[in-house]
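Hi, here's the filled form for the chain we discussed.

Project: internal
Contact: R.S.
Residues: 337
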Amino acid sequence: MYALARPLLFALDPETAHELTLWSLHHFGGVLPHKAVQGQPVEVMGLKFPNRIGLAAGLDKNGEAIDALASFGFGHLEVGTVTPRPQPGNPKPRMFRLPEARAIINRMGFNNHGVDNLLANVRASRFKGILGINIGKNFDTPIERAADDYLACLDKVYPHAGYVTVNISSPNTKNLRQLQGASELDALLGALKARQTALADQHGRYVPVALKIAPDVDDEQLTDIADALRRHRIDAVIATNTTLSREAVKGMPMASETGGLSGAPLTHRSTEVVAGLSKKLAGELPIIAVGGVMSGRDACDKLDAGAALVQIYTGFIYRGPNLISEAVRETSARAAA
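And the returned structure, exactly as it came back:
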């Protein structure tokens, strides 16, 4: 079915196609048959995942299509990024396809309806699997007050999340990646860990916290990040977000648009970051790989580089649900070998 729908969707403006797809999944997704994908279960962050393939944050920012997306066979779903207050994001147009590169550039800017709206959608869903909730800061919150936004979101989503992802790596919110600096990251992770501990006592339930990082970091920055993750006992790291690099798409139509680049051009760099983190962390905390997973082979390469789980977004846009079953099948076969 997706092979028939894709040409129609790709004839539309990318954001219009995205919104139409989510609207359709929200209103008609309940009639979709659940796709039974036989996977290899795995325990990560103390959670039992039915397979290693998940949906990355960004596709369903407001949690509007959770039940429909679950029907495709993902082992987990991550919704968001969500901010404390609703915000419109950056001016349109802000999403661009590069079909010849199997890539997307976006500068969405954390457009979302706010954390309260997302939680209403989560409560209305029937999904009983592992749901990650990705949190960020509002665009008009000063960077020195960023922790306030992350803590406010963490307080609200904690009772409803399987795990929580702290997004400090989007290139589309001014100065956000500054939070990856050594001193800024140390302060933020310290505050988050203290709040997580308090919330675990309050709710009688430990919810893991993961940090999502950018691919545009050098080895020294990666060392600083790994050290901070260990020092603050963060439960997992997600590598990586989109890239600002245009090296792989130079000269292509739309390549000069500002924003984060995702898809096939990110495959190699994302895997490099996973491998670098794996070496530096030495198994002390799990890595969730995302970035340029366009095939089952790409997913296996992420596992070979040291990832425990793999997430997909742009590959899903280009290939549809078949990519999910292929990736689950091939990563399960690899794990069983």
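Let me know if anything looks off before we file it.
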